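User: Hi! I have a protein structure encoded as tokens and I'd like to know what sequence might fold into it. I'm fairly new to this, so please keep things simple.
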């Protein structure tokens, strides 16, 4: 690794130390279905987002709810205090495409249909309101 690349990687690592996030990798649902759930809670206050996810009928919402609880716990761990009502917000949430497993399904007349089993990676950032005002 070159010096310029190493310096930029170190800067990126230092920036992540001041952010509060959680990642969920290799989720076996399609990114499109997961993005529907991610769009529901983007920018919401965390307690309200937890309620929305808990009562959502989507299968992906249970996974995102667990991820959100993990991000809240990460924030509490780094700040050494409990999160209060109305303090934390979902600042960023995005869904990236993961690996696609390619399978074959038998089809009529000796053919085979291709099946793509998609997966995704979800990254969720939380932060308090007063920190967002500074930026």
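Assistant: Happy to help. Inverse folding works backwards from shape to sequence: for each of the 135 positions I chose a residue that suits the local structure. Here it is:
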């Amino acid at each position: 690794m070159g010096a310029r690349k190493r310096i930029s990687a170190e800067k990126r690592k230092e920036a992540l130390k001041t952010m509060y996030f959680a990642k969920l990798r290799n989720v076996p649902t399609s990114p499109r279905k997961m993005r529907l759930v991610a769009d529901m809670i983007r920018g919401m206050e965390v307690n309200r987002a937890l309620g929305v996810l808990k009562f959502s009928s989507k299968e992906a919402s249970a996974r995102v709810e667990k991820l959100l609880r993990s991000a809240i716990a990460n924030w509490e761990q780094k700040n050494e205090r409990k999160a209060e009502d109305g303090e934390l917000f979902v600042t960023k949430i995005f869904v990236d495409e993961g690996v696609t497993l390619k399978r074959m399904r038998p089809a009529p007349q000796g053919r085979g249909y291709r099946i793509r089993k998609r997966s995704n990676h979800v990254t969720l950032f939380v932060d308090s309101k007063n920190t967002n005002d500074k930026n």
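A useful reference point when you look it over: The domain at 21-134 is CATH 3.90.470.10 (Ribosomal Protein L22; Chain A). Feel free to ask if any position seems puzzling.
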